[in-house]
Amino acid sequence: MDTITHKEIYDRLVQVEQKVDSLDSKTEEVVKAFGAAKGAFLVLEFIGKLAKPILWVIGVGSAVTVLWTEYWRR
Fold first, then answer.
1. What is the reported pLDDT for 64?
2. Coil, strand or helix: which one is 74?
3. How far is CA 2 from the centre of its chain?
4. Rounded Cα distance, 19 and 39, in Å
5. pTM
6. Which of 35, 41, 63, 74 is the most exposed place for a label (fewest CB within 10 A)?
C-alpha cells in the first residue's frame, strides 16, 4: 500500500482551495446577474400594473369618441 505524505496532502488541499476560490468568484457573478434580473422583473411588474388602468382609460375614451362621432354624424 502506498503511503501518503503530509506534503502530498497539503498540496492537494491547496489545489482544492484554489478550485473553491475559483468557483466562489464565478458564482458571485451569477448571483449579481440574478440580482439585476430581479430588479428588472420588479420594474416590469410595476409597468404591468400601470398598463391595465391606462388601457382601460384608452378603451373607454375610444368608445366614447366612436359613440360621439356616430351621434353627431346623424
1. 93
2. coil
3. 52
4. 31
5. 0.45
6. 74
C-alpha grid cell for residue 11? 498540496
- Sequence length of the chain is 74
Residue 25 sits at the vertex; the CA angle it makes with 22 and 27, to the nearest 5 degrees, is: 105
Question: Can you read off the three cell numbers belonging to residue 31?
Answer: 448571483
* β strands within 1-74, DSSP E: none
CA-based torsion, 70, 72, 73, 74: positive or negative = positive
**pLDDT digit string, tens, across residues 3-59:** 889 999 999 999 999 999 999 888 988 888 899 899 889 999 999 999 999 999 999
Cell of 39: 430588479
Per-residue pLDDT, 25: 85
How many CB atoms lie under 10 A from the CB of residue 32?
A: 10
The secondary structure element, H or E, covering residue 5 is: none
